[in-house]
Amino acid sequence: MLQYIIWDINPEIFHIGSFSIRWYGLLFALGFLIGMQIMTHIFKKEGKPVEDTDTLLLYMVISTVLGARLGHFLFYEPELLIKNPLQVILPPFAGLASHGAGIGILLALWFYSRRKRSIETGQTFLWVTDRIAIVVALAGAFIRLGNLMNSEIVGRPTDLPWGFVFINNDEFAKIPRHPAQLYESLSCFVLFFILLAVWNRKKAATPHGSLLGIFLIVVFTLRFLYEYLKENQVSFESTLFLNMGQILSIPAVLLGIFFLVRSASNHPPARN
Q: Which sequence ranges form a coiled-coil region, renumbered to this chain (predicted)?
């Protein structure tokens, strides 16, 4: 009978000299590349200028990386940000916060939509964020798989038969733990298919803000709950009633509820 799973995956796929290709980087890039193809499909189906997806990709890459890096330092290690602000943009980019990435993406899409919301393109903030929510769910699944390959963001000890022993994590290598990264990855995959199905059903007639609302509610409600199964990322969280991930998830869920309720009275006309 299976008692636990030994997780001994090398984070590196291969290396040449000091240059290495890691699973995390590959999966991170795949999230953007596949997401780009999905957005191209959506733009074609809804009659939007396909060339705009190149600009959208640039906004997404920059806002995701900068938002995640800045969010990590602001939420978890503010003293390091004050000491050396250049760490945000300098490699090796250790430390990424999903809440920071979310804030960065929303701000970037607001600026993007300011340029593209004309009658000709019709890419309003809620139109863009609804469609981006689909591919962000997929990207989130790939990123959490990358965390699994890195043996990071591990769960608390468990005696369940699918507990993982993370051999390559020196701090948490001795006993089986919840594969919290896998839980979040699978949840994001399921959410991706749900959002894609909801969009595919109505396409341009999808109520503005509905997909964004569903995304925020599901992702951050689950994030709040999964935090109970995860080890804290930094020591100061042990002194808090809720850890930082849970604290930051509450306003995200409330924002999602706001967009979902608002979408109930916001039904754009369908296009043939």
A: none
